[in-house]
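[job 4471] stage=fold_predict status=RUNNING
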Amino acid sequence: MQNQKQVNQPPRGTLSRRGFLGAAGGAAAFVFLPRHLVGGAAGLSPNSKLNIAGIGVGGQGASDLDQVSSENIVALCDVDSDRAANTFKKFPNAKRYKDFREMLDKEKNIDAVVVATPDHVHAIATMTAIKMGKHVYCEKPLTRTVSEARAIARAAREAGVATQMGNQGMAFEGNRLINEWLADGCLGPVREVHVWSDRPTHRGKMPLWWA
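[job 4471] inference complete, writing structure tokens
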């Protein structure tokens, strides 16, 4: 595999989708590159931290932020202060907001946002952040409609930002490698795939296959 060509490599000096956010295991786990590669000032140490904001920080949002707690959590937004109370307490230095539009407008130092609001706000918050040049990790479902998803994809390409949707169970490194092998063609034509699933669990582990 040493001669395997690289697939979908970004232009030099830009941040790849894989470099910014990667999910592993049952919860989101993010991988970050140096801040100067994601819009920060040049010349910073490779160990410089990203400034991250959370939009919807109770429940799944709290879990997502835990995965990036080694970075700078600079701002938190949630309409329900009671539900977000534990997250507010965990990051006491982060500024608090109820309106993500106000947060993004005021906090000019934000590099990336984690969106984990109720579903109907995902597309709105994601699009707003992208248009302001912020990298985005958004929980599933990303949008309500196909047209919204296409609009967000176009906006991300135009803004040159990294994005990822929180399909944690399908974002393992092994899954990404398989996609790269298929795209590369090194496996040859794939005629049959065998898949095992333990869901629904009450029916036990059942092998599934498609030919």
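[job 4471] summary: Helices lie at 17-20, 60-67, 85-90, 100-106, 122-131, 146-159, 173-184.
[job 4471] exit 0
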